[in-house]
Amino acid sequence: MTRVCLLTGAGGTLGDAFCRTLAADYDIVAVHRSEPPLVSSQDAWLFDPLAPRRTVPETEHPVFTVQADLRDHSDVERVVELALARFDQVDLLVNAAADVTTTALTTTPERVEEWEEQLRLNAVVPVHLAATLADVCWRPHHAHNRQRSRNVVNVTSTAGLGSAPGTGRGFYGASKAALTTLTRQMAQEYAQLGVRVNAVAPTFFPQVVPTSHVVDAVTRLDRGSMTGRVLVLEAHGSRWV
Amino acid sequence: MPALPWWEPETAGAMSPLLCHRRWWWHQRPFPHVRAVNVFTPAVYAELEDAFLGWLSSSGGGATLAAHDLRGTTVTSAFEGPLRLFASRGWQALLARALGVRVTQHVNLGLHHHEPGGLPGFAHNDLNPGWFPEVDAPSERVVLADPGVVDYTSGRPLSPEARPVRVVRAVAVLFYLANPAWERTHRGETGLYTRGGRDMSDPVASAAPHNNSLLVFECTPWSFHGFRGGGSVGRNSVVAWLHRPEADVVNRWGPDAVMGYGTGA
Question: Domain residues of chain B, as ranges?
Fold first, then answer.
């Protein structure tokens, strides 16, 4: 039975690459805020303009796209409802949506709402999504969760590993540090549900690390048996922390 | 050696050697539309771009279209050169087949130039009437709008012998070309909306004016779209409308579906 993946940030660099690479391997619920990933879906598909009624191979594995602003609580619940309505289960939650805005901490106080929004999307929303899934899908099915190796992969960043994240990246780094900490805590609490929780922490992609390496890291965490681990991806290779 | 044939493609299939690839995108939201990038082969596109830039430099962009804050010209049968590809039966047939729309032989073809900082337009559906000169021509031949003979938007005859023919827009076409390599700050997108009106700020989807890219859709009561503003570099495009008999529109959407020009709906 094909594994079902609920992916946030599907319109971003990582999300788009994930969908392009793995649409045949997973049933993907691709959650995007503005532009959807450039893959065939229920809303958009490739066709041959000279033979428009003939199905082309690229449309064989459509993803299921959902437009949502996950900072809105009701949208988090709507996304989970739609995913379950479409596929009846979720085996893998990939929290890849991120606000990468950079602002200096000396900037005017008017930016405080943007900082709060960034913290909400990058650190609170991943937990909110997982908790909603746990509540409506995972909690009653401990054995089944283990059997299907259900798990959460949070996409954090090397900016959240304690070193200076760079000028203007204070709140971004703080949000990713929070998500890294939350990943370890989630791993402990979700163990009782039979659900694993891990994180991948890449440096800049695609500038320093190829995006394909980040996609590979997500699938490695999905296919493994680890929990509470953070896989760091840097220019010279990967390491666990 | 020119990449475009000396003849005009007569069928959709005859367009095949001119196309860069055979994968276009069909989008359902907010209304069915087709988008494609790298539409023509690089050699064909280069000829089209050169021809457009030649027109732009020689004409200054043509006359001002007051309702849309842009300049442009209507391509008539007297127009020569590579841009006639867009007036060919083959191009018309390709687009009509891609959308699954039955069209008449009538095509209104224009060259548009938005200046940097050009004002946003308004969301409208293009389900408007169009008037063409009646010509004694085989039904497979393309008949272009001709502002020297019949006023396209009112049907007013401009020559004593003109006999206007009224049809309705069936397919809208925007082909973007001769623009700087597009970046988000350039703006100039065509926004796609669920309703008409002056608020262009929040489109459901938008088509960026990447060179050699295409936006095509059937004109329906819900095909709301509009120019989102010129941004820092302006925008160039070839636009066209294919047409259908008015009875087809009335049968499908009722007698009130055909809109007057300049309305927000």
Answer: 35-131+168-253
CA distances from B206 to A14, A63, A233, B31, B201 (A): 22, 21, 35, 12, 11
Domain CATH for A25:
3.40.50.720
CB B186 within 8 Å of CB B233: yes
Distance from CA of A190 to the nearest CA of B (A): 37
- For B11-30, what is each residue's pLDDT tens digit? 999 999 999 999 999 999 99
- From the list A44, A50, A51, the residue facing B26 with the nearest CB is A44
Q: Give the A-side interface with B, CB within 8 Å.
A: 42-52, 56, 58
For residue B30, say if its preceding peptide bond is cis, omega within 30 degrees of 0. yes
- The answer to whether residue B195 neighbours chain A at the CB level (below 8 Å) is no
Of the candidates A45, A50, A51, which has its C-beta nearest B26's C-beta?
Answer: A45
State whether B23 and A48 contact (CB < 8 Å).
yes
- Per the document, the length of chain B is 265
The pLDDT tens digits for A155-210 are: 999 999 876 667 788 999 999 999 999 999 999 999 999 999 999 999 999 999 99
Number of domains in chain A: 1
CATH architecture for segment(s) B35-131+168-253: Sandwich (2.60)
Chain B residue with minimal CA distance to A53?
Answer: B98
Q: What is the dihedral of CA B197, B201, B207, B208, to 10 degrees?
A: 140
- A102-128 per-position pLDDT tens digit: 888 887 777 888 999 999 999 999 999
B168 in reach of chain A (CB within 8 A): no
Are the C-beta atoms of residues A101 and A118 closer than 8 Å to each other?
yes
Question: What interface predicted TM-score (ipTM) does this complex get?
Answer: 0.92
Residue A52 with chain B: CB contacts under 8 Å: 97-98, 100
